């Protein structure tokens, strides 16, 4: 009798085939998740190896010279680097107040819920419109429409180096505006999510001591959500730096350096899109060098974004 | 204290300031929504009015031949479907498998943390870099039957864009499945494999499907990785082996034809934008619908 009792709780004996399938499936999923790391490293290595020739020849001089001449084989990417930084930062300066303002408008109880959801949905749908379509619209509709405005800016503020050339069509200024449109949805969506996660008790406490809506927002709600909002802003900055199609179509693709945002320019990504297909020899290597710089820039911004979200996130 | 001291006074400075900020925020959200309305209106009126059956099935004509008929965008529509199909055939299984590992097997160790971090990094890499990468390892090396620019290379480039989205949503979807379901299945004697395949994956199906649709929508609208992987073709696909050759897509067609000096070609670009935007907006609204049904359950 006692021996029978012991047998009652023996675990089911797993057949060999089952063990094989279980282990095989586990290893398969490990291999698949490792694909992310493999692709990431492969991208890094390929872009780095392809750019070594140009790195060896120009070194850091590549970053600060702006001649780009396939005939004499002289390359420097300063125009493109300047364009990338100026367009992305300027678009961020415009898009942050718009995006965060919109996020506040659709999270705090200002409007009926239906309208709030509709505005949120519309801003998010804006993200679904592909870059190339926005580029088409920018070239054929927006740029001719805003040109008089840009000319007015030039005539009024032409003494400032940033506005010191006459707008003649495509240029960095319309590229900045189209970038604003493209990064607005990211900033708005992430800010909205962070604001929605602020505990309701914080709001109640703020209103309970007699704060007005906006003193509660500025002193309590925004500080509580700041980590998520900052992360979203940095994510948008990374997106703006790497954005290609709309910028390539509207920025004018010119390698002549100019401080002015009214004149045609280049970004690293637009240079790649424009020249990569027809490049050969050391031009390919120089383009790869530029691609490597772009990758390092976006990577740094992204890692910084992840770090700041972890660092700043408040614990309730 | 008088009773009037407790009522809302609309002309206090603090109340006026508060109202002013509300108005500013309202104006900001109006400005934020405005581009969508303007772009959509242009695409629907300008692109939508050009749509006809011929335009949807014909091939585009070489520029300048005949200003009256620019042909159609049929091959680009087919090409977009094929290239994004190839991308999802690659990215969906790998993404779901990777997500299963992260959510079901990993115990938060350094490998899993690194993969999650890598997923975020990969989704932040500019899409044109993915194009440059695929160009160097596939187009230049002629690794597939000696072909250079091909629809297949384009699909592979787009799969790199899709992969992080699918992994992330699978991981997050599976994490929402209650642990009781897993314990129940395992307690009944099911193997880990059967539990995942028949219990946890189906219960997370809706959020995974949302992720796949969103990733696909993002990939289908991409242009930058395609301009030097799939390139462009003026002709219809006739056989399956055509995936080893240059292939057209709606987005590259828009890019190529937007900057052409010919009016007829610009109109093709508007029409292609209409088709593409309707497609992508439809997919986005569809994914929203899926997740809405899921949250009502």
UniProtKB/TrEMBL annotation, chain B:
InterPro entries: MetI-like, MetI-like_sf, Phosphate_PstA, Phosphate_transprt_permease. Its main location: membrane. It is a multi-pass membrane protein. Keywords: Cell membrane, Membrane, Phosphate transport, Transmembrane, Transmembrane helix, Transport. PROSITE patterns: ABC_TM1. GO terms for cellular component: plasma membrane. The chain crosses the membrane at residues 21-45, 76-102, 114-137, 143-163, 184-205, 268-287. CDD domains: TM_PBP2. Residues 77-287 form the ABC transmembrane type-1 domain. It is found in: Cell membrane. One of its GO terms (molecular function) is phosphate transmembrane transporter activity. One of its GO terms (biological process) is phosphate ion transmembrane transport. PANTHER family: PHOSPHATE TRANSPORT SYSTEM PERMEASE PROTEIN PSTA. Belongs to the binding-protein-dependent transport system permease family. CysTW subfamily. This is Phosphate transport system permease protein PstA. It comes from Prochlorococcus marinus (strain MIT 9211). The lineage of its organism: Bacteria, Bacillati, Cyanobacteriota, Cyanophyceae, Synechococcales.
